[in-house]
Structure formats: structure tokens, C-alpha cells
Amino acid sequence: MTLQPSFRDAVERYLDTFDRGVLPIVQAGHPVLRQPAAAYDGQLGDLLPALLDAMRLTMVDAPGVGLAAPQIGIGLQIAVVHDAGAPDAQDPRERTPLEHRVLVNPSYEGVGDERRSFFEGCLSVEGYQAVVTRFRTVRLTGQDETGRQLDEELTGWPARIVQHETDHLRGQLYLDHAEIRSLTSNDNLATLWGGHEGPAEAAQALRFPTA
């Protein structure tokens, strides 16, 4: 994908359009969510910090634990992630805290064969969640916003967040990997399955497999 010379100016005008820096989140069905994002190689120059700040504000306002640039209509391989973690140390999702960070041109690969199945949602698919089976542990590579190389392993919910956001940059939605029979509204998830530690009860009732 080749970006036009005016791309930076267009992004700057776009960021200036919205109050408080909070941007509208693109919803499923928009082509930008289905196109592999362009690798970031400095196209935004000194505008990058402003974009990252707007992405952080938008993610927190949503609220969410991750946001990829295509979700605000910008087809670049940039994402922000952050999760305070679960208050219960015994959370079966292994939802440990993930400090706010920026992922530039990220990629991941599974470490080992262990996988976990849990309900997962997306800011670009409002109102619904579905069970997705993902690697429990991944190796994350890429850069941060300063160009520093990333090469580390993440386990549990932080690994799931990284997989979800990196998939966005590949033109994928979590629904592409979900057990479609598990698809549920947020209201039904809270009412019917919110008190359970995992998707086993939902799997039995809705008749879908889990890892």
C-alpha cells in the first residue's frame, strides 16, 4: 500500500475535527477494517505523538483495552494497548495488568501448543461477544513509538490483547476466529454467563466446542 504525500496533512486535519481528541470508532462493514494496514515507516513525522494521544484517549473513553489505527480509519500498523487487570488474582483468564504501550509494526507467533478459549469483544463490533480460541502465550516482535525493537513473551489476557490488536492490522476481526455459535449480546453474556469462570456452560447450552 502506497500512501500519498498529503497523508500526514489529512491525518492532522482529521485529528483537529473532534473535541477532546476522542475519535469515532469504525464499525464492522467498513473496508478499512478488512485491508492489511501499511507498515509504519515515519509517514506521520512529528504528528505521531498527537495520533497516539488521540488513540489512547479514544481507547480509554470507549472503554477498551486496545485500539488499532484502522479502528479510527487510519490504515497504518500502529496500535495502543492497556489493561489494569482483574482484581481477582485467580481470574481464569490470567488477566494480569498490561501497562499502556504502543505497538508499531507488531507481529506475534504462538509459543508452545497451549491454547485458551474465552469470550472476547471488540470496539468495532459493538454490543456483541463471542468465544475465541487463542494461543495462551505468544512471542511479540515489532517496535515501540521510539523505534525501539520489541521481542518478548506475553501470557494470558495480555497475550490475547496483543493477538486481537495485531489481527486488526492484518485486516482481521475477532469474528474471523470465533466460534460463531457462541455469539451473544453483551446483555445476554452478563445475564446468562457472567457468573461463570469460563465458556464451558455456554458451550454446552449453545453447542460449540472450546479448547
TrEMBL record:
<feature type="binding site">
    <location>
        <position position="164"/>
    </location>
    <ligand>
        <name>Fe cation</name>
    </ligand>
</feature>
<dbReference type="InterPro" id="IPR036821">
    <property type="entry name" value="Peptide_deformylase_sf"/>
</dbReference>
<comment type="function">
    <text>Removes the formyl group from the N-terminal Met of newly synthesized proteins. Requires at least a dipeptide for an efficient rate of reaction. N-terminal L-methionine is a prerequisite for activity but the enzyme has broad specificity at other positions.</text>
</comment>
<feature type="binding site">
    <location>
        <position position="168"/>
    </location>
    <ligand>
        <name>Fe cation</name>
    </ligand>
</feature>
<dbReference type="GO" id="GO:0042586">
    <property type="term" value="F:peptide deformylase activity"/>
</dbReference>
<dbReference type="GO" id="GO:0046872">
    <property type="term" value="F:metal ion binding"/>
</dbReference>
<dbReference type="InterPro" id="IPR023635">
    <property type="entry name" value="Peptide_deformylase"/>
</dbReference>
<comment type="similarity">
    <text>Belongs to the polypeptide deformylase family.</text>
</comment>
<keyword id="KW-0378">Hydrolase</keyword>
<protein>
    <recommendedName>
        <fullName>Peptide deformylase</fullName>
        <ecNumber>3.5.1.88</ecNumber>
    </recommendedName>
</protein>
<dbReference type="Pfam" id="PF01327">
    <property type="entry name" value="Pep_deformylase"/>
</dbReference>
<feature type="binding site">
    <location>
        <position position="122"/>
    </location>
    <ligand>
        <name>Fe cation</name>
    </ligand>
</feature>
<keyword id="KW-0648">Protein biosynthesis</keyword>
<feature type="active site">
    <location>
        <position position="165"/>
    </location>
</feature>
<keyword id="KW-0408">Iron</keyword>
<dbReference type="GO" id="GO:0006412">
    <property type="term" value="P:translation"/>
</dbReference>
<keyword id="KW-0479">Metal-binding</keyword>
